[in-house]
Specification:
Blueprint: E1 3-7, E2 13-17, E3 22-23, H1 30-49, E4 55-61, H2 67-76, E5 82-88, H3 95-98, H4 107-118, E6 125-128, E7 131-136, E8 150-155, H5 169-178, E9 179-187, H6 192-200, E10 203-209, E11 216-222
Parallel strand pairs: 4-5, 4-8, 5-7, 8-9
Antiparallel strand pairs: 1-2, 2-3, 6-7, 9-11, 10-11
């Protein structure tokens, strides 16, 4: 697999997979996209809706550069909740690439970014008392996540036209089943077929403003037992 580092419009790095002719993040700004889609509209929204929970269980589809995990780790210093972060990745990127990414603004952040990438695979690792990371080297096609186990799902697979097998009803059904009642699913994608598929799984769909360079994104909520 041929991968190269690129610089996106906000100055942050991303990667380009030349085989798929696809980038890991928006070329309009990798950092801006991840902060908007996954942190602001995902994690922060869940915490606003559930301020009294003591732990938040996050499932990420696509560890990739580690940017979403890194931003979530940073956010954990500002929240009262412990975050248990599970991320699936079929093709981990080598240290020669991730070590050159420019996401960390200072020495503490750099140490955290390195710890994320060097953490042992397939088991929970305590990076701080408030952030536990479990990276699983397996695809969602081959894995069935435990039912009603996650509060937030970051769905960050490659785009449907590049990786269609990750956007099928079967895959989305697994994700939906893994969400707790009241849990949320967020993704940068806003295609009509995705929204129809999520609605067919009885998720409540919200089409939201996207990050810079993208008009829309999707957030879906698994109905609570208290919903009418």
């Amino acid at each position: 697999m041929s991968i190269e580092i690129i610089t996106t419009a906000d100055g942050s790095h991303s990667l380009r997979n030349s085989e798929l002719n696809e980038t890991y993040h928006s070329v309009h700004g990798a950092l801006q996209e991840s902060k908007h889609v996954f942190i602001k509209m995902g994690l922060d929204h869940f915490l606003e809706q559930h301020p009294d929970v003591s732990e938040v269980n996050v499932l990420e589809i696509g560890f990739g550069t580690g940017l979403n995990a890194f931003l979530t780790w940073q956010r954990s210093f500002e929240t009262s909740q412990r975050i248990n972060y599970t991320s699936l990745e079929t093709f981990p990127i080598p240290e020669e690439l991730w070590s050159k990414l420019n996401y960390a603004p200072d020495d503490r952040a750099k140490a955290g970014f390195v710890a994320l990438h060097r953490a042992e695979w397939n088991t929970f690792v305590e990076l701080t008392p408030k952030f536990y990371l479990r990276k699983i080297e397996q695809s969602l096609e081959d894995l069935t996540p435990p039912v009603e186990s996650f509060d937030v799902v970051y769905f960050d697979a490659f785009a449907p036209n590049k990786q269609p097998e990750m956007w099928t009803q079967e895959i989305l059904s697994k994700v939906s089943a893994s969400l707790k009642r009241g849990g949320i699913f967020v993704t940068y994608c806003a295609k009509g077929q995705l929204k129809r598929d999520l609605k067919a799984l009885n998720l409540e769909i919200s089409t939201l403003s996207g990050p810079p360079g993208k008009k829309e994104m999707v957030r879906a909520r698994k109905c609570s037992v208290f919903d009418k």
